[in-house]
Amino acid sequence: MALSPGLCLVTGATGFVGSAVAAALISSGQTVRALVRPESDRRNLAELGLETVEGALEDAASLARALHGCRYLFHVAADYRLWVPDPAAMMRTNVEGTKNAMLAALDAGIEKIVYTSSVAALGIVADGSADEETPSRFEDMIGPYKQSKFLAEKAVRALVAERGLPAVIVNPSTPVGPRDVKPTPSGRLILKAARGQLPGFVDTGLNLVHVDDVAAGHLAAAQTGRIGERYILGGENMPLRAILAEVATQRGLRPPSFEVPRPLAYGAAVASETWARFTGREPFITRNGVRMAKKKMYFTSAKAIRELGYRARPAREGIADALRWFAANGYLS
Known about the structure:
Elements (H helix, E strand, L loop, with lengths): L6 E5 L4 H12 L3 E6 L14 E4 L5 H8 L4 E4 L11 H22 L3 E5 L26 H21 L3 E6 L1 E3 L8 H10 L5 E2 L3 E6 H14 L5 E4 L2 E4 H12 L6 E2 L2 H18 L7 H6 L9 H7 L6 H14 L5
Parallel strand pairs: 1-2, 1-4, 2-3, 4-5, 5-6, 6-10, 7-9, 8-12
Antiparallel strand pairs: 9-11
Helix pairs in contact: 1-6, 2-3, 3-4, 5-11, 7-11
């Protein structure tokens, strides 16, 4: 079942997941418009041939302009960092910006919305895979990113219940693949490992998914997703050690074999964050990251598979595509 033709607005289209969603929409025959900040890096838009409207989530007039004539909204834009010098700025973007976009969509009469949340807003199962119904509380959210995504999703669900917002929520896990220009925290992990800069690992695990599978899941959610429901768009559950070993194998390097004790990792995070405040550069290891790593962040996409026909390729293919893109674009030189 294909998505009926119509003009689609994509927020965050210059970014990693957003550009994949925009490309998937265009490939499916949809007409796409992107809301773009004036200062945005637009490399990911260069070959897409889409319309752009300059504006921002905090600018209601620009949201109205961007949504005019649109049938669908894919709200992908978010500040995705595990450490920020000003958490309030992240809250404004991820929470208030999402509310602004949803209210503007209601005013514009948008037919269907796909809101990109994150598994960061979900609960964790200590010795298994979490799903959409795993209990979660704000008090369990570690760090401003998880807190902001939890609150933003809560706001979307409230608007669905109270004002009939026609929104479906998708929760991507840890995406990897091409076009990670920033790069994202997951992309930085792949890059560090590919450069042989990670001699050790902590005992944790992630659910890795190809970014293009996440994009396909967005389209499936727009086609058949139920209003007010959320769908995990995940891939393969992998221990961090296995992820780093896969990167090393594909690069012809020796996989890291040293398991870093948590107290040592925490000390390194404190030093890294302190240095970041002097340099302005995002630290690679953070205290919140070490705290989150106490549990393996494993998820199941069974609901999306069952209701959306969602499919994800093996994680090694996402890693391979990420490495090829990073190499072709000078990130590994």
